[in-house]
Design brief:
37% of the residues are buried. The chain has helices at residues 30-45, 75-81, 84-91, 108-114, 142-150, 152-161, 167-173, 185-197, 201-215, 219-232, 237-248, and strands at 5-11, 14-19, 51-55, 60-62, 97-101, 104-106, 118-122, 126-128, 165-166, 178-180. 46% of the residues lie in helices and 16% in strands. It contains eleven helices and ten strands. The chain has two domains: 5-197, 2-enoyl-CoA Hydratase, Chain A, domain 1; 201-248, Lyase 2-enoyl-coa Hydratase, Chain  A, domain 2 (Orthogonal Bundle). It has 257 residues and is of the alpha/beta class.
């Protein structure tokens, strides 16, 4: 697997995927996307991992696709690449994913961040879909996830001008979860990952599944999915442990069973 994506283990239950192409502003080459796909597939199946942090460098998250690899491509070339299969394992990862974003998150970088469940952004971070400026449009969910995150009118402005928005504006429009000082981004993401990893993993998995599936369902269908997931969790040992620990006034120990 390429060194352009590094897997780190700061703690037993937490995995960190770090984009590592600083010389190319962490551009999402085909090799990078293949590596991300493989990592997310493996981590999604790993019983030890309970939370994943996705990050770039201290100065940049990811500046989009690698245009040098795309400039002379034909429509048939782009179809044959089947790049959607590489994004699938990220979108379908059952584990919670936190994006720790410093600097630029543009084009595919913004789309990558929007594949995550929580986005922690630094004060100096910027988010944008500038594809229109080079004659194309987003192709990895930018027109769909952005609308769902910020609404039609804000999304249209970003998509049609290609202009980035700073972190504070992204927070106000609902594109990120929280904004912290640039130097504190990874530490804050790690704190959140640690807290999420301490929660019952089956409940976390069901929460993520219900939110994502319900997002594109009717309210009635979404409520039904939520209700069934809620009821199912009463078959877990973690439900018994959590409620007994609460009544006993002690800290619960969740095992994912």
């Amino acid at each position: 697997m390429t060194d352009d994506v590094l897997l780190e283990r700061p703690e037993e239950r937490i995995a960190v995927l770090r984009l590592n192409r600083p010389q190319a502003r962490n551009a999402l080459s085909l090799a990078v996307r293949e590596a991300l796909s493989q990592h997310f597939t493996q981590l999604g199946e790993d019983s030890v991992t309970r939370c994943i942090i996705l990050t770039g460098g201290d100065a940049i998250f990811a500046a989009g696709a690698d245009l040098r690899d795309m400039v002379e491509r034909t429509p048939v070339d782009m179809i044959a690449r089947r790049s959607e299969r590489l994004w699938g394992p990220i979108a379908a990862c059952p584990k919670p994913v936190i994006a720790a974003v410093n600097g630029w998150a543009l084009g595919g970088g913004c789309e990558l961040a929007m594949h995550c469940d929580v986005i922690v952004a630094g004060e100096g971070a910027s988010f944008g879909q500038p594809e229109v400026k080079v004659g194309i449009m987003p192709g990895a969910g930018g027109t769909q996830r952005l609308v769902r995150a910020v609404g039609k009118f804000r999304a249209m402005k970003m998509l049609m001008t290609g202009d980035p928005v700073p972190a504070r504006d992204a927070l106000a429009m609902g594109l990120v979860s929280e904004v912290v000082a640039d130097a504190e981004v990874f530490a804050r993401a790690l704190d959140l990952a640690r807290k999420i990893a301490s929660m019952p993993p089956l409940a976390i998995m069901q929460i993520k599944e219900a939110v994502l599936a319900g997002e594109d369902s009717s309210l009635e269908a979404g409520l039904m999915l939520e209700r069934k997931a809620f009821q199912l969790l009463f078959a877990t040992n973690d439900q018994k442990e959590g409620m007994r620990a609460f009544l006993d006034k002690r800290k619960p120990e969740f095992e994912g069973r």
